[in-house]
Amino acid sequence: MVRPPLTHLEHARGARLGIVLRAARGTRSMTEIAAASGVPAETLRKIETGRIATPAFFTVAALAAVLGLSLEDMARQCNPPGEPLPGQIATRP
Q1: C-alpha–C-alpha distance, residues 36 and 67, integer Å
Q2: pLDDT per position as a tens digit, 37-62
Q3: pTM to 2 decimals?
């Protein structure tokens, strides 16, 4: 099965996810977070730099748990402004 190319919005969302994770990590090292979450440090580095724009759910969940982040808050921070979260119905102002 061939995976379709990512859209510009998916790349942008991945970049925002990297920024959110990097900010939450603070002064802690990638190695420390990787060891605590079970996510390889190289994978964490790729997510933080936007090279992995759509990481697996359980990878994000493991990182969120270690970093003390709520998945809902992360989704809000990573979603483009004004766009409903996946599964939400868009409302008009």
Answers
A1: 10
A2: 999 999 999 999 999 999 999 999 99
A3: 0.83
pLDDT single digits (tens) 7-45? 988 899 999 999 999 999 999 999 999 999 999 999 999
The SS3 call for residue 1 is coil
Residue keyed to tokens 């970049």: 15
Collect all residues with Cβ–Cβ distance below 8 Å to 10 and sequence separation of at least 6.
53, 54
Rounded to whole angstroms, how far apart are CA atoms 87 and 78?
15
Which residue bears the tokens 């409903």? 84
User: Which residue, 61, 30, 26, is CA-closest to 44?
Assistant: 30
Angle between helix 41-48 and helix 8-25 axes, rounded to 10 deg: 120
CA distance 73 to 45: 21
Region label for 86, one of left (φ > 0), alpha (ψ between -120 and 50) or beta (otherwise): beta
Residue 71 near residue 77, CB atoms below 8 Å? no
